[in-house]
Amino acid sequence: MNLATNLKAEIALAHRLADAARREVLPHFRTSISSEAKADATPVTLADRNAEEAMRRILKAEVPQDGVHGEEFGVEEGRSGRQWVLDPIDGTTAFLAGRATFGTLIALLVDGFPVLGLIDQPVQGERWLGVAGQPTTFNGRPATTRPCRELSGATIATTGPHYFSQAEGEQFMALAAKTDHKRMVMGGDCYNYACLASGHIDIVCEAGLKLHDYAALVPVVEGAGGMMCDWNGDPLHAGSEGHVLALGDPARLEDVLAALGGG
After folding, report:
1. Close Cβ partners of 261 (under 8 Å, ≥ 6 residues apart)
2. Which domain holds residue 92?
3. Measured between alpha carbons, how far is 103 from 189 in angstroms, rounded to an integer?
4. How many whole angstroms separate alpha carbon 187 and alpha carbon 201?
5. End position of a domain, from candidates 140, 171, 187
6. Interval 136-163: pLDDT, tens
7. pTM over 0.85
């Protein structure tokens, strides 16, 4: 029995978690909902908190042995070697601006590595599911990345320059300069990775991400034929430092690392 078969129940659970989050988030979209700044200066709303609480209630009832790592309410240790990682609204700034490029992220880690990931865009009714050992789906149909024969023809995306340090920004711009930078995408949060998995973007490059920001993205991108790694080309896991690369065409990895100065 392969891993994908073993995760059948977890896949169904991930969909129920996403449905629960949708019910909490959608009523607040494009309303006058207020926000407050967290310790890291990023915004949080009632919708973020309610959505995570709804997902946590389901997990506590159905898989109490599993750990939970959530953006808003921290870590609850488990005893199974498995951990659910939740980001109720990845892209709260976009959510507050009325832009439907935010998403709910749900991941399952086994021994620290992502084996299941779900990206849900509730406003547009779009859902990407990635599971180790099986193809990624977009609303139930196969999703695939696109080939990229040369770095000079690649479309690159990042959430924003303000997330880079000066040195990181210089590395990013060195990479961007070797791509089709006239089509560079700024903004998008998790939605960039979803679009990459569906063959619309070639590279996403970011820094400063936390586990809840990237865990769900890994199975989605890799199950669609792409790859995710850090800026050294190493696999992403619970201990990664937050330098994240997503490539639609893994054949471009050496080019990208060389442009960043890491290979």
Report:
1. 171, 174
2. 3-140
3. 8
4. 13
5. 140
6. 999 999 999 999 999 999 999 999 888 9
7. yes
